[in-house]
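Our preliminary data section would be incomplete without showing what the modeling component actually yields. Below, a chain of 510 amino acids is followed by its predicted structure, encoded as tokens that our downstream tools consume directly.
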Amino acid sequence: MTFIASRKIIVGFAVVILVVTAITAIYGRLFCGFFCPLGSVIDFIDSYIFKNARNAQRRPPLYLQKLKYTLLFTVTLVAVTGTVFPLFLDPISIITRIATVFVYPLPAIGDNLVRPLLGSLGAGNRLPIPYFYGTVGIGLLFLVILFGSYWDRRFWCQYVCPSGAFFGLLSRFAVFRRNISTASCGSCKACVKICPTRAISEKNFKATSTAECIMCGKCIGIKQGCSTFVFNALPGHEAITVAPDMGRRQIIAGVAAGTLLLPVLEANALTKRDNTGRLIRPPGAVPEALFSARCLACGQCIKVCPTNALQPCALDDGFSRLSTPKLAPRIGGCEEKCHACGNVCPTNAIRKLPYDEKRFAKMGTAVIDKPRCLAWEQNKECLVCDEVCPYHAIDPRFLQTSRGMFKVPVVDADLCMGCGMCEQKCPIFDTAAIVVYKFGENRRATGPYMSDAQKQMVTEKRKRADKIKADTGGEGAGQSEPGLTTGIPDARTGSQATQPENIPSSGFAF
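Predicted structure:
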């Protein structure tokens, strides 16, 4: 789907796909039975939790197994238009997202709950708890997937999983198949009852559906020599198989569903939130159209972020962006020397940037909200944003007011990379007085983010700002700006003070 949507073959993925495709063409749905992590979790739930709760009368009709083919063609059509949308359906993406957003915080939460009860451990050195948007939602999705076992074993794999449908279609050509020994078979139909995916027909128990069989081997374990798996091409062996139960109706239904889904993805009114400029992608993220075609919302970048700054998008960011990563500066800023997200991204939706390139990858620009800023509005000695900025993008300036000279922060847009450290550390409650917006972002699929001349200019400005800060003991430039005032009437003259240069009258300062 990623190849189709991005119109590009990712070499690393291509090798894996060729290997898995070759294995499936020979052995059938071996991946589903032996390698799928979500299938392993479902098997555990089937065997130990819902084993005695299932009832044969609650089993869904057999024809509902065709639903997964409809979903396969739906997500394929969406991929053709340039959007990867199996993020709710792909088992690998789902299980990694569940592990990150739902499971990953549990040890830290447990440690913080248990530690106060055990006085010997003390109150210090607690594990930091990672917080994520959508934890409740992904937890409910996980429970829904697992609760399908109440109705049938491997419910997800039988009726929903498009990956299973794809492997089922490939398994049509598999040569390693189940074979029945007529001499050993007693027609007890125990194999029919034990098969977790209903691959063995009740009417003809000697026939096996290649599209549903996951090669689990449970049928050959109940009676020695009755059922065996053999290469169908070998002399003396002939396995009775049933082709995938997919017809024109599933193809038509899938295309129709994809056609109806496209307007929802493209014209969703919730994507208007993007106009606020707060949808900030990770450093190294490719342009948005290509990002939507590559990102699987697997959550691996979110997990490795050391500051917990990367968060999954919610519904108010747009339905098509749900669970894809974004920077939430109020929770955490992007560390200057960290680019772990690019190193773990499996589809190159986030580029692998070296440090020398990452420090020039602009994600956005910080904006100061003067009415909320302690320095601008209340003449308080607060320059926290300047202290934590790793790029020296905050330029402290003297401000002349009726109460004397005060320092205020001003953002140098050329130096600001939008890392969000300033927003995270801002002492103002709720919404920070300095907020990062995505305007000015520089996202490229390939190549450097700045020319050599631009890099040299930015580097020199950073060095100059660093030197000034070192010479003044961390106080910054501290240059007086004669026309730089707060807009508060002067107590001595009664006149209205002027707006500072390059500061919009709306109350925001760059």
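The mean pLDDT is 82. The two ends are 42 Å apart (CA to CA). Preliminary results of this kind motivate Aim 1 of the renewal.
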